[in-house]
Amino acid sequence: MQFAKQVTVKAPRQAVWELLWDVPRMVRCVPGCTEAQVVEPYQRYQAMVREKVGPFQVKIPLHIDILAHAAPERLVARAGGKDGVGQSHVKVGLEVVLIEITPQTTELRLHADVVVFGKLGVLGYSVIVRKGDDIVGQFATAHGKDIHEV
Question: Is this structure's pTM higher than 0.85?
Answer without folding.
Answer: no
